[in-house]
Write a structure and sequence with these properties.
- There is one protein chain.
- With 691 residues, the protein is an alpha/beta fold.
- Among the domains are: 65 residues, DNA polymerase, domain 1; 99 residues, OB fold (Dihydrolipoamide Acetyltransferase, E2P); 157 residues, P-loop containing nucleotide triphosphate hydrolases (Rossmann fold); 158 residues, Rossmann fold.
- The chain contains 23 helices and 21 strands.
- The strands form 4 sheets. Strands 11-12-10-13-14-9-15 form a 7-stranded parallel beta sheet, with helices on both faces. A 6-stranded parallel beta sheet has the order 16-21-20-17-19-18, with helices on both faces. A 5-stranded mixed β-barrel has the order 2-3-4-6-5.
- Strand 5 and strand 6 form a beta hairpin.
- Helix 6 packs across helix 8, helix 10 runs parallel beside helix 11 and helix 15 runs parallel beside helix 22.
- This is ATP-dependent DNA helicase RecG.
- Keywords: ATP-binding, DNA damage, DNA recombination, DNA repair, DNA-binding, Helicase, Hydrolase, Isomerase, Nucleotide-binding.
């Protein structure tokens, strides 16, 4: 009798013929350390030794199985690369086909003239020959040859010196002998979605019983895959809500938004809120009135008015004498927020203070004292706000701008300076909804998708490197005649030998002495000291600089209404969402704005990607396309550490299931029906730092 096997068992503990120390080592080198890893080691593809056809009835580019007789064979080396190459002419009663195997010399003695074989592969025309290249081959006895009807063979990712046949047998053995093998969600959920048993899911994904099921698996529409995908997402969100429930469900003092406050809001704003701003703000107010704690992420495209919404959301707390803090990732952005908020709150008589790394020592001491005593009600700052010296008297509302630019611990330090304050996180980076829900799982989510009326679309024009002089002439003309300012953005500060890219320093020197020699130019980049950057930006905002050469340091936060031209060099080196962010720096006024994307050596796919920028200004649509093209990891960048490691789920492909799993997990946790048993195991499994 076989010993029962558990999902958490290490593979070296399994008694199975051929699973010795050497094989265990090779499997572990592929990341297959436990039984669970092997069960989720799904086939790369399937060889369909079915769909038998006669040669004459096949079509080019069709996957088929053929029962053929070998007429002749020839072993040689390819003309250019000298790769071992076996060619065979085979036939059935309807015609001939050439079979070609590269780099498989072991087949030479096995394939014999006059022998009958079964081959599976894709038919194609090659050098005027109708052929199959590297087909799967089966050698059968005469009786088997006539009787074979259907065989679907799983093909796994190759592991050195571990055969596909061995993996098939081992995984089949584990599916049959692993106990228990139950879903982590309740039976009522399984019944609701009509999911099969978990063991059946593994069995039918590894060893599908029909071509129809193979097609469903290839499209990720198989019910067996859907059940495992749902379970993985459910487990993830169950952990998210279990670990944050105590914080997120804390009851707060109800705050009611009366008519007097609404009238005051109307009186302090020099413009009317958009319908989207009103909707998002009213949804936030409803949370306050119920006495619930606000933990919300609001996305808004560049210029959508998120800052206004955040200030108006905080206003009821300011009126009650509580403290509000807004943290921004850069000093430039913090200063801009400070000026904007100061303008909004001017009529209320509530002063706003700014705390950054460059704040003088004397001013810092004054601010520390004011925050601790409670005299200062609204503070805007950078990372300086999370320093130990900063102590609040009654911090009840925290606004985190560009949330993803801060580490989890940094955000938590600020939040813990208050008594479970409300948290409103903002981002101008358009992150697709399901990605945002996964990254910020326990945050409620909302988005402001419309922009204030009256703004014209930025005209986006793609230019090849050889035509860049046309752009330079246009920029010069607009600066001289219309007094329009421009940004020039580069991927690098200095020239790199490793990367053949245009640098900000190189172009600044070149263009300042040629095309723009009688214009006022300057440069800004991340390596400059904060005060130097501030000085340059101040001069640019005051119109003392015509053209600002920059790296992506100006990606967020800079607001210069007269800067209506942006030239992005080596645009193909930027992600679509980053290009969109950069483009959002212009077109802030009523004048027509222009964005030029100068590109080098574009392949077809790269051109399609860049072309999206000239077709739409919808940041959310651009983000969806960017995510599809680059995948979540590259889309978020290497600095983003919050993305969980899923075995089978895909947050873009499985968007509908992400929402369903999240809602059901939240319901079970908050109603006390289900909770996470092992938080450390969960963190290890998903590699997730809660955000």
């Amino acid at each position: 009798m076989t010993d029962l096997i558990h999902l958490d068992d290490y593979i070296e503990e399994i008694k199975f013929k051929g699973l010795g120390p050497a094989t265990v080592k090779r499997l572990k080198g592929k990341g297959l350390k436990k039984v669970e890893d092997l069960l989720y080691f799904f086939p790369l593809k399937y060889n369909e030794l079915s769909n038998f056809k006669k040669i004459a009835y096949t079509k080019p580019e069709e996957k088929v199985s053929l029962k053929v007789k070998v007429r002749s064979k020839k072993f040689k080396r390819s003309f250019r690369k000298k790769i071992p190459m076996l060619e065979a002419i085979a036939s059935d009663e309807t015609g001939n086909i050439k079979l070609i195997w590269f780099n498989q010399p072991y087949l030479v003695p096995m394939i014999k003239s006059g022998g009958e074989i079964i081959v599976f592969g894709k038919t194609q025309w090659r050098n005027n020959d109708y052929c199959m290249v590297n087909p799967v081959v089966r050698f059968l006895e005469a009786k088997e040859f006539s009787e074979i009807k259907l065989e679907i063979e799983p093909v796994y990712s190759s592991i050195e010196k571990v055969s596909n046949a061995f993996l098939k047998k081992l995984i089949s053995f584990l599916i049959l002998n692993t106990y228990p093998l139950n879903f982590s969600f309740p039976d009522e959920v399984r019944e609701r979605f009509s999911f099969p048993e978990k063991r059946e899911c593994f069995k039918n994904i590894h060893f599908p019983q029909s071509i129809e099921e193979v097609r469903k698996i290839e499209n990720f529409s198989s019910i067996y895959q859907q059940a495992l995908i749902f379970e993985e997402l459910f487990e993830f969100f169950l952990g998210v809500f279990t670990l944050t429930e105590k914080e997120d469900t804390i009851k707060k003092e109800p705050v009611f938004i009366d008519e007097e406050l609404r009238k005051e809001i109307d009186s302090i704003l020099p413009f009317k809120l958009t319908d989207e701003q009103k909707r998002v703000l009213n949804d936030i107010y409803k949370v306050f009135e119920k006495g619930n704690r606000l933990v919300r992420l609001v996305q808004g495209d560049v210029g959508s008015g998120k800052t206004i919404v955040s200030v108006l959301a905080a206003l009821p707390f300011l009126k009650k004498g509580y403290q509000v803090a807004l943290i921004a990732p850069t000093e430039i952005l913090a200063r801009q927020h400070y000026k904007t908020i100061e303008g909004i709150l001017q009529k209320t008589g509530i002063p706003v203070f700014l705390l950054t790394g460059s704040t003088s020592k004397k001013e810092k001491q004054k601010i520390y004292s004011g925050l601790e005593s409670g005299i200062i009600k609204f503070i805007v700052g950078t990372h300086a706000l999370i320093q130990p010296e900063v102590k609040f008297n009654n911090l009840q509302f925290v606004i985190i701008d560009e949330q993803h630019r801060f580490g989890v611990e940094q955000r938590q330090i600020l939040v813990e300076k208050g008594d479970h304050p409300h948290i409103l996180s903002l981002t101008a980076t358009p992150i697709p909804r399901t990605l945002a829900m996964t990254l910020y799982g326990h945050y409620d989510y909302d988005a402001i998708k419309s922009k204030p009326p009256g703004r014209k679309e930025v005209k986006t024009i793609i230019k090849k490197r050889e035509n860049d002089f046309e752009v330079y002439k246009f920029v010069y003309k607009m600066a001289k005649i219309n007094k329009i300012q421009s940004y020039f953005v580069y991927p690098l500060i200095d020239t790199s030998d490793a990367l053949e890219l245009t640098s900000a320093t190189e172009k600044f020197e070149e263009l300042s002495n040629t095309y723009f020699k009688d214009l006022k130019t300057a440069m800004i980049h991340g390596k400059m000291k904060p005060q130097e950057k501030e000085d340059v930006m101040k001069r640019f905002q005051q119109g003392e600089i015509d053209i600002l050469f920059s790296t992506t340091v100006i990606e967020v936060g800079v607001d210069v209404p007269n800067a209506n031209i942006m030239v992005i060099e080596n645009a193909e080196r930027f992600g679509l969402s980053q290009l969109h962010q950069l483009r959002g720096r212009i077109g802030r006024g009523e004048e027509q704005a222009y964005c030029f994307l100068i590109v080098d050596r574009l392949g077809e796919n790269a051109y399609k990607r860049i072309k999206i920028m000239s077709k739409t200004s919808d940041g959310f649509l651009i983000a969806e396309q960017d995510l599809k093209i680059r995948g979540p990891g590259e889309f978020l960048g290497t600095r983003q550490s919050g993305l969980p490691d899923f075995k089978i789920a895909d947050i873009l492909r499985d968007a509908r299931m992400v929402e369903e799993a999240r809602n059901i997990a939240k319901q079970y946790v908050y109603q006390g029906k289900l909770t996470l048993n092992d938080s450390e195991k969960w963190k290890k499994k998903f590699g997730k730092a809660l955000v």
